[in-house]
Amino acid sequence: MSRVGVVGAGYVGLTTGACLAHLGHDVIVGDIDADKVRRLTKGDVDVLEEGLPELVAEGLATRRLRFVVGAAAAAADAEFVFLCVPTPEGEGGDADLSVVEAAVREVAPVLPPGAVLVNKSTVPVGSSGHVGRLLRAAGAVPEVGVASNPEFLREGTAVRDFLSPARVVIGADDPTVAVRVSDLYRDVQGPVLVTSTASAEMVKYASNAFLAAKVSFVNAIANLCEAVNADVREVTLGMGYDPRIGFEFLHPGPGWGGSCFPKDTAALARTAARVGDDFPMLAAVIATNREQRDRVVGKVRDAVGGDLAGRTVAAWGLTFKANTNDLRDSPAIDIARRLLGEGATVRGYDPAGGEAARGLLPGLEVLADPYEACAGADVLCVLTEWDEFRWLDYERVATVLPGRAIVDARNVLDPAAMRHLGFTYRGIGR
Ligand code: UDX
User: Strand, helix or coil at 116?
Assistant: First the structure.
């Protein structure tokens, strides 16, 4: 059992803290937001993450998990301090490290000798060196170690991804530091890979960029399927059986979004550019993703006869993917913005992100009921792959949606069944 401090109580920091407490460590999570700390101390978790509220409650009950205001308070008596603060997209696509730097300066003077600062925030390759120098400059004792431990948590399955990871990556240029950090994960079911700090930082970016590339590729294939009368679902089935390809991340849609892929692909492109590499393949991945949103808007425009002005669109799904309440860089929100921009009325519905979407986009109406969202609309557009959209009553939809047109940007519906009910149906690659 180790004493662990976690800086930042966002979905990565909270998941990390609660899971490490669940593994038996003594964890203090610090956040600058005093109100959030108050709510978390009462067990009030505001992110939609399966199993996380229960783990937080367990940690609070066993007193292995505590929440404090500020980074220094979390770090003061810790053997390990995890940095889990945001690195949003900054100038020109670079990762903005200002929050990481502020946290390092705050903890440096209080870190006890022998402590290890473990970076879990997504930072450009080479940042561990920068963090080490900053630590020294900010008054940390020489015996403080630095490690990189990138997270691969997916929103919606973060707890499972932490406790049963595909792999744990630990980057440390000092082998003793690597061994000590690995030991924190001794009860986790998954391989632990020890690398240099630079390699660990690159694993994170390369993994996200590769997954984004896979999605952009399948979207490009889907578009080609439409042109040659093939069905992308049959095609991805045929591809996925090849274990070198696999079935995961082969679902075409409106393009990728969220708090990671967009900023990480941009930051990786910047890292490459800085060393004179224009990384054309990555540029194509990003461009294909942008075009995919245009294609969906084009399908909606076609579905209403070519002009969106004065038309009403029911938009089912506003979050960037299903099983999360996160709207950050959501393709659905971006598409709704473009539809509004072309003069359409957009009536949105989302099982979890509706409240947060209210007021996000001037003109976007948000309804609490999917059928109400369809009332009087010319076209229904499915933008997020929530399960509930598969089993809603489409005969009822047919009675309230005078336009009788469906654009299924996530291929969650059965085209034949929709056409049988008298809808025109447009999917992605079908
Ligand atoms: C991602 C990585 O998966 C995770 O390892 C990393 O730690 C953080 O970034 P997340 O942002 O939660 O996780 O989303 P993910 O499930 O990866 O989906 C990313 C985007 O791709 C979403 O917009 C999703 O809708 C889209 N996507 C994903 C597809 O369009 N098709 C697919 O087959 C898979």
Answer: strand
Pairwise CA distance, residues 271 & 277, whole Å: 9
Quick: pLDDT tens for 21-72.
999 999 999 999 999 999 999 999 988 899 999 999 999 999 999 999 999 9
Atom of ligand 1 nearest to the CA of 410: 30
In this structure, the number of other CB atoms found within 10 A of the CB of residue 240 comes to 14
Residue nearest to atom 22 of ligand 1 (CA): 256
Q: Give the model's pLDDT for residue 95.
A: 87
DSSP 212-227: HHHHHHHHHHHHHHHH
Residues with CB under 6 A from ligand 1: 151-155, 208, 211, 215, 249-251, 253, 256-261, 320-321
Which residue in the block uniquely carries the two structure tokens 């006869």?
305
Q: What 3-state class would DSSP assign to 168?
A: strand
CA distance 249 to 128: 30
Q: Which amino acid appears at position 341 of this protein?
A: G
Cα of 329 to ligand 1 centre, how many Å?
12
* CA of 154 relative to ligand 1 center, distance in Å: 7
What separation in Å is there between the alpha carbon of 11 and the centre of ligand 1?
Answer: 15
Give the number of other Cβ atoms within 10 Å of residue 374's Cβ. Answer: 27
| 293 close to 257: Cβ distance less than 8 angstroms | no
384 CA to middle of ligand 1, Å? 12
Give the CA distances from residue 175 to residues 10, 46, 128, 198, in Å, rounded to whole numbers and listed in that order. 30, 38, 15, 14
Q: What pLDDT sits at residue 92?
A: 81
> What residues are paired with 347 via a beta bridge?
314, 365
Between the alpha carbon of residue 227 and those of residues 26, 80, 136, 222, the distances in Å are 58, 55, 59, 9
Residue with CA nearest ligand 1 atom 5:
152
Question: Residues 349-362: what's their mean pLDDT?
Answer: 93
Which residue CA neighbors atom 28 of ligand 1 most closely?
249
Q: Is the pTM of this model over 0.90?
A: yes
The residues, ordered by sequence, that sit 6+ positions from 177 with a Cβ below 8 Å of its Cβ are 116, 145, 146, 147
Q: Which residues partner with 31 through β-bridges?
A: 69
C-alpha span between 45 and 339 (Å, rounded): 34
Question: DSSP H helical segments within 70-115, as ranges?
Answer: 71-75, 98-107
Tell me the C-alpha distance between 117 and 71, whole Å.
12
